[in-house]
Specification:
heterodimer; A: alpha+beta; 4-stranded mixed β-sheet; 3-stranded antiparallel β-sheet; 4 helices; 13 strands; 38% strand; B: 226 residues; mainly alpha; Glutaredoxin; 2 domains; two-stranded antiparallel sheet; 4 strands; 48% helix
Chain lengths: 136, 226
């Protein structure tokens, strides 16, 4: 059964995951391609960073063939909403607040009406008045 | 609509190393925002944010809100109301008319806000409207776990709506609103997707009335000592 993870503006299809209550187990074989995480002896790793599994709770997160990705992200402090076949993983509040306190404007890339993409960083060197509006 | 005002501002100030970037927080994308953008025919980047990414990154809870960003990419004025007032709350909805004093106050608020933008475009870091670091930090609104959980439910709702599952989407939107009741972005977008007449309908006016003495658009202190 196909599942979908929404995270950091991406829609990640997980073709052979297994849902169990509020959790989604992702097969080890597709974990890296889907999420960028890998399971190593030192813990769950993304790039250079490894997070050890909490002692005595390893079975909650890791089985011989799959990784309970949503339980792990929840353990990491991410708010997660779930309905049926879809999970949405939001940014951690402490990460957002740290970004905010740096006073550096976070970058984004969005289309105009013709589909041309613009990034905030394209306008570095100018004073930018960034304003929201809506049709509603 | 704010687009013609921002176009005029951009035309006036673009030679001063100044650009407007407007972002439409519209889940339905071009289908919802397109007609307004075509009518305004903007020459500045007028972007469409169907997943409300900018609201998430910058902690926006309503529109119009704005952020001022300097040449180095630093925020000099965090998210705040962009030159408008609560005057609409005094509107006679049978005639769609605001009392003269509310109109005068709205015009004055808009004028002073646009003048502050002109001053910043001209004077950059020397402008008294470019806040100092302490003031910028003091004006940040930290996000909470519940705020971010609300964002997760809202984003999930947008996805479900797009997938043709509107009833499930509204359940997610309801949870987002419950967890972050201060967000008019969540409430009004959800109403608009449920029924386009709803975001300005009785539910909206009841919710505004329920604010009591609280603001719908928080007033802006243009300078640190204002």
């Amino acid at each position: 059964m196909p599942h979908t993870i929404l995270a950091e503006g991406q829609r990640i299809p997980v073709s052979s995951g297994r849902s169990e209550g509020a959790d989604l187990w992702i097969p080890m074989a597709s974990l890296g391609a889907a999420t960028g995480w890998a399971i190593k002896p030192e813990g769950a790793c993304k790039g250079e960073v490894c997070v050890p599994m909490p002692r005595g709770r390893e079975a909650e997160f890791v089985s011989p063939s799959a990784f309970n990705y949503t339980a792990f992200m929840r353990y990491m402090g991410h708010p997660i909403a779930h309905r049926g076949d879809t999970w949405c993983i939001a940014a951690r509040p402490e990460d957002r607040n740290e970004q905010m306190r740096s006073l550096q404007a976070p970058d984004f890339t969005l289309p105009d009406i013709d589909g041309n993409l613009h990034s905030l960083s394209d306008y570095r060197g100018k004073k930018v008045f960034l304003a929201s509006w809506a049709s509603w | 609509m704010d687009l013609p005002v921002w176009q005029a501002l951009y035309t006036e100030l673009e030679a001063k190393n100044f650009v407007v970037i407007s972002v439409a927080l519209d889940t339905a994308g071009v289908a919802a925002a397109g007609q307004w953008i075509r009518a305004a025919n903007p020459t500045y980047p007028c972007l469409i944010d169907s997943e409300h990414v900018v609201a998430d990154l910058y902690g926006m809870v309503n529109v119009p809100q704005a952020v001022w960003i300097d040449e180095e990419g630093m925020i000099v004025r965090p998210t705040e109301t962009a030159g408008t007032t609560d005057g609409f709350r005094h509107m006679d909805r049978t005639k769609f008319a605001m009392p003269p004093e509310a109109i005068a106050s709205l015009r004055e608020t808009r004028r002073t806000y646009l003048d502050a933008l002109r001053d910043w475009a001209e004077n950059g870091a020397e402008s008294r409207y470019a806040l100092n670091d302490a003031e910028r930090l003091a004006r940040l609104t930290p996000t909470t776990f519940d705020d971010q959980m609300a964002r997760a439910h809202f984003t999930l709702g947008e996805y479900l709506h797009e997938e043709g599952r509107p009833n499930e989407a509204q359940v997610e939107f309801a949870e987002a609103k419950r967890l972050h009741p201060e967000s008019w972005e969540f409430a009004r977008q959800a109403w608009a997707l449920e029924d386009p007449s709803k975001s300005g309908g009785p539910e909206f006016w009841d919710a505004v009335a329920a604010l009591g003495d609280k603001h719908y658009y928080a007033p802006v202190r243009l300078t640190a000592d204002a």
